[in-house]
Amino acid sequence: MSSIIVTAAIGLAFVVGLVILVVLFNFFGIWLRAKIADAPVSFARLVGMRLRRVPVGMIVDSRITAVKAGIPLDTDELEAHYLAGGNVDHVVLALIAADKAGIKLDFNRACAIDLAIKGTTKTVLEAVRTSINPKVIDCPDSSSGRSTIDAVARDGIGVKVKARVTVRSNLDRFVGGATEETIIARVGEGIVTSIGSSASYKDVLENPDNISKVVLQKGLDSGTAFEILSVDIADVDVGENVGAKLQAEQAEADKVVAQAKAEVRRAAAVALEGEMRAKTQEMRAKVVDAESQVPMAMAEAFRNGNLGIMDYMKMKNIQADSQMRESIAGSERGSAEAR
């Protein structure tokens, strides 16, 4: 019985020793590296990180980097940020860059910025670097497919402008603040407003700095993650005469309207002419009807003795004489027209 207990104890000791050897084999190099760098990490934490599927080497190296830069960070903080989906390396480098530049940035703020811009092309390290070294933004953005901001002065002449905006990251407003797209949109709006309020395009060409002054006075960086340092007008060109173009289009539209109204009047005149022709035909019909009553009236006058044969012959002579005079007058008019 005692031999079985001894054998079991030896087996247990062997297993424990084997586990210790495995732990030492896997974590001794990392533990020693952290120990030598004055950023010690216990074996228990190293094993716990491995069990939680956290990259031990990355966490330890990030802690060493931070401690060497004079920023005491615990492995629990770094591990928690990694498990939240953050980029531990960028956070540590951002903290070091901010500390060296004298910018106040704590670990929680850096983690919040890192998580806020997750999924974008930006990084917390880039945000800190932009806060240290301001960056220049082209307005409009070349990726938008437009090369200039087009506006029209009050005299109707178009002006094309390119601007360069110098901005610096505002780390206190980076979480929840508007991005570069908002800065570009607001600056473009300010440029259009400034040009539109100018009396002439010549004023814009002579004093392009007036655009910068108007834009800067509007406080366009409020509520954004950046602070606008300057707005520089890189290029100003004269565009097309929009006012003249609009006037020409208006004149063409007025012409079409006038033609339509004239067509309406012509159609009304044609309708009236047709109506008058119909009335003329109606009156001629009445004349013909009246003329048809003459023979009957004459016959009635003969029967009643009111008209004699001599009166009838005299009337016929008068009619023949009238027809002859009309014929002669018609021939004279024809020869006169021929001459």
Quick recap:
By secondary structure, this protein is of the alpha+beta class.
Structure commentary:
The model has no long low-confidence stretch (mean pLDDT 81). Helix 5 (88-101) packs parallel to helix 7 and helix 8 packs across helix 10. The chain contains 12 helices and 4 strands, in the order αααααααβββαααβαα. The longest helix has 63 residues, at 242-304. With 339 residues, the protein is an alpha+beta fold. The protein has helices at 2-36, 43-51, 56-68, 75-83, 88-101, 107-116, 124-132, 180-196, 201-206, 209-217, 242-304, 309-338, and strands at 135-139, 149-152, 157-169, 226-241. It folds into 2 domains: 2-132, no CATH class; 135-245, Tetrahydropterin Synthase, Chain A (2-Layer Sandwich), CATH 3.30.479. Strands 1, 2, 3 and 4 form a 4-stranded antiparallel sheet that branches.
